[in-house]
Amino acid sequence: MDNEIKTLKRALDQATPTPSATKRARDLELALKTFNAAQGSTDPARLPQDPAPNARGFLRGFRNMITRLNTPMALAATSSIAVASLAAFVVLPNLDLSNAPPAPIPASETRNRAAVDNAADRSIVSAPPEPVVEAPVVIEEQAATFDALSNLKRAPLAFERAPASMRTGDEISRLQGPVASSERFANDVAHGVTVTAENSVSTFSIDVDTASYSVIRSSLTQGSLPPAEAVRIEEMINYFPYDYAGPERDGAAFAPSVSVFETPWNSGTQLMRIGLQGELPMRDRRPPLNLVFLIDTSGSMNSPDKLPLLIQSFGLMLTSLAPEDEVAIVTYAGAAGEVLAPTPANDRAAILGALQGLSAGGSTAGQAGLQQAYSIAETMTEEGEVSRVILATDGDFNIGISDPEALKSYIAQKRDAGTYLSVLGFGRGNLKDSVMQALAQNGNGNAAYIDTLSEAQKVLNDELSGALFPIANDVKVQVEFNPAQVSEYRLIGYETRRLARTDFNNDAVDAGEIGAGHQVTALYEITPVGSAAALSEPLRYGGGQITGDPASDEIAFVKLRYKAPGSQSSRLLELPVTKDTVTPDTDARFAAAIAGFGQLLRGGDHLGQWGYQEAIDLAARSRGSDAFGYRAEAVTLMRLAQTLSEK
Amino acid sequence: MQVSDAELAHQAAAGDRAAFGALIHRHYDLIFRVAFRFSGHRQDAEDLTQEICIGLARKIAQWHGQAQLKTWLYRVIVNACHDKRRRDATQAKAALGWGERELALRQAASEEAAAQDWLWSAMGGLSPVLRDTAALTVGEDLTHAQAGEILGVSEGTISWRMSEVKKHLRDLAQKETADG
Q1: How many other CB atoms are found less than 10 A from the CB of residue B11?
Q2: Nearest 10 degrees: CA dihedral of A350, A355, A356, A357?
Q3: What order do you get walking across the sheet with A519-528 strand by strand?
Q4: Which one, A179, A185, A323, B135, has least CB within 10 Å?
Q5: Closest residue to B37, CB basis, from A2, A16, A91
Q6: Which residues form the RNA polymerase sigma-70 region domain (chain B) (predicted)?
């Protein structure tokens, strides 16, 4: 053997560490568990390794963009750093701070009031009139089991990875302990089955929050099943984008669509899906937007998951801006400075150039930065325009006003003057989540945590637009079932959103808001008359029952009420539902799988023998194009839950 | 006498849990070692090892004795490592493992680190394809034919790659002499 090769062999042998015994035992246990599961299942649902065709195109697009974004940086930084920033896009842990407060400003406030009205004994995290974070934000480490079971296109970044797989049980419970004890979740007993002949009307408020899903994800990735009360099924279902048709008619804020299909877990019942698609942000119709990026360029931002990811994220956001929007960039660190004067959003070259020119260094000293950002925002604002400062930081909130109360009131005062504030957190170890939340809430904005470029896509493109432009307030749904066609029904989820029948027409009763592009899905499990799946029998004496209209083909009549922003009186949308069932499309099947998953996590008793494996199979078959990989991630979470539930 | 790999694998494929456990136990070190040498990063190796062990639970039923179990196992490991690299969208992550370490070690600049430093420059300076080839032929003492079978290329390709690896190592040695 050649000398070089010998040296290489010796060095390789020396460098290779011994695997730890704990890790070995844990891996063996996991493998055996999977082995058992594989034996029990004839058709194990497997995630294909390759992303779906659409996703592939999507990723390629991103890659191009990142390449473009990174080229000048690569020249400026060492090649290793450039490589690291490239890796950050796929590689960062999917840390769960994304359950930012429900964004639209008056929404959370009013929704909570409605919720309080409707269930006095419920644990609401805090009370009006403060804008409210409905579920606490949970900062948790990524558990390694998630990586192992995952086919996701992200994995924790090497240097900051917590080797969770090597944690002892004690360590894990220590990590979970304080979180579990301080968490409070808003929930209520699940809706039971209602006999249509006794009560044919069901009323609820819509809910566009998705926080529950994030909490569930963080619990599962941490290696424990979420507490049942943390599971709000409607928020799980609504986390995912569906392909609903938008409103056609001019002036309608959203379009409802209803379809009926067979229930995966019960052949004797059907699912009735009500889908609402908020009007998509029409770039020519929404008010021009002025954005001031206030970027922390202190030395601590010099890490691939901070400044480089931030630059990519903002670059991404530019694609969803309209030509008449304007962008300015201010940095704070050492000396605050205007990096980019207000520039039309379609001058991408200038904006991207300014972003790429940013580099981290210096200490944080930012009051001047914040004040400068606001004053620039004020000069940009013209009649009818929306202005927002977007503060991006890893937690160095030394933006000058040292008294937090003074800072909050400063931000609130600016909000009243018309400039809002959103806060984006990057990186780990220094993040002050509570400060982020407080500032954003005072600024009428949202706080979000960006750990991957795909989270940036979700927060900055998909959700920020919804949060910025509410299109319908107090959206209520009322469904009247025809007892001649439907013997029983059950609303899945929306426990904290139920309304009294008379609330529907009462415009004084608050309900949820829909923002531009938001989607809402509600599922009813219904039992057709004559189905063997009916749980109740006709009453012998039949007194006081609603008989319905046997001549009608309609199984239900759906009514929606909403107020246009600024309006005090509501509009009504109505929609009859006939008994024709359809073959469920992928969206319908996926929503059903998630509904089943949620019920399994809650411990519902409506699923019979249908379990995690069935949910996994159904969801894995219904991923559709899944351009964002959310559905693939959900399948991974289901598998984790399956494994954990077998413990 | 020890039960052979093939026998264990046949039993595992037929659903024997204990046989499967024994198989994993027996080859755990190998899996970890190869994963480490492919990734150049302990934590990546740990994640990969776990993923591979779980994957084997599902894949073992597909082994029908068509190849030597060890060859098949190497192939599973290599595929998992490659999948991970693909998942990381670019091969940047793999380079990151080695490159990052290289940076850290350069900063440390201690005598003790010097020997390892050489390894990180040696491995980190190779393209992923060459690095994988070196990890199998040098690290695992496999013949060029065996490595070729695992990586799905011809023996000749492996031989060519190894000559490239040697060239790289020689260049490195020359550079060290020049620097030193």
Answers
A1: 18
A2: 90
A3: A194-195, A486-492, A519-528, A266-278, A254-263
A4: A323
A5: A16
A6: 23-88, 129-170
Which among B54, B61, B123 has the least Cβ separation from residue A148?
B54
Which domain, by its residues, includes A547?
105-281+471-645
Give ipTM to 2 decimals. 0.82
Alpha-carbon Rg of chain A, whole angstroms?
A: 26
User: What is the DSSP annotation of A516-551?
Assistant: TT-EEEEEEEEEETT-TT-SS---SS-TT-----TT
- Domain boundary pick from A422, A440, A468: A468
CB atoms within 10 A of CB A79: 11
- Same domain for A460 and A485, yes or no, is no
Distance from C-alpha of A43 to C-alpha of A39, rounded to nearest angstrom: 10
**How many Å apart are CA B167 and CA A2, to the nearest integer?**
11
Amino acid at the residue B128: P
Residue A129 lies in a domain: yes
Report how far apart, in Å, the C-alpha atoms of A479 and of each of A28, A557, A577, B58, B84 are. Answer: 51, 6, 10, 46, 48
Q: Does A371 touch chain B (CB under 8 A)?
A: no
Short-list A451, A409, A457, CA closest to A428: A451
Among B25, B54, B99, beta carbon nearest to A149: B54
- Give the closest of B37, B83, B134 to A49, CB-based: B83
Residue A40: the pLDDT is 62
Same domain, A520 and A535: yes
The residues, ordered by sequence, that sit 6+ positions from A178 with a Cβ below 8 Å of its Cβ are none
Whether residues A515 and A628 fall in one domain: yes
**Which stretches within A119-198 are classed as H helix?**
144-149, 169-182
Look at B72 and B93; give whichever has higher pLDDT: B72
Residue-wise DSSP of B15-38: T-HHHHHHHHHHHHHHHHHHHHHH
Residues of chain B contacting A33 with CB distance shorter than 8 Å: 57
> Which tens digits make up the pLDDT trace of A394-424?
766 655 555 667 777 888 788 777 787 877 8
For domain B1-87, give the fold.
Answer: Rna Polymerase Sigma Factor; Chain: A (1.10.1740)
Q: Judge whether A84 is closer than 8 Å to chain B, CB to CB.
A: yes
Is the minimum CB–CB distance between A9 and chain B shorter than 8 Å? yes
**Res B116: pLDDT:** 58
**If you average pLDDT over residues B111-131, what whole number do you get?**
70
A8 touches chain B (CB under 8 A): yes
- Residue holding tokens 């899944």? A626
Tokens 């009243």: give the residue: A416
Facing residue for B54 by CB, picked from A34, A63, A91: A34
Subunit contact B54:A44, Cβ cutoff 8 A: no
Residue with more model confidence, A166 or A20: A20
| Phi, psi angles (nearest 5°) of residue A542 | 60, 15
Which residues 135-154 of chain A have a CB within 8 Å of chain B? Answer: 144-145, 147-149, 151-154
Closest Cα in chain A to B12:
A35
A463 plus A475 within the same structural domain: no
Lowest mean pLDDT among A28-32, A103-107, B63-67, B155-159: A103-107
How many residue pairs from chains A and B have C-beta atoms closer than 8 A? Answer: 172
Angstroms from B132 CA to nearest CA on chain A: 13
Burial class (CB in 10 A: 0-12, 13-18, 19+), A508: exposed
- Residues A557 and A451 occupy one common structural domain: no
Strands A289-296 and A326-332: parallel
Average pLDDT over residues A464-468: 58
Query: A3, A7, A12, A73: which to substitute to probe chain B, counting the most B Cβ within 10 Å?
Result: A12
Q: Is A275 in the same domain as A297?
A: no
Closest residue in chain A to residue B138, using alpha carbons only: A9
Total tally of structural domains belonging to chain A? 2
Residue A56 lies in a domain: no
Alpha-carbon A562 to chain mean position: 23
Q: Which residue, of A453, A468, A483, is where some domain finishes?
A: A468
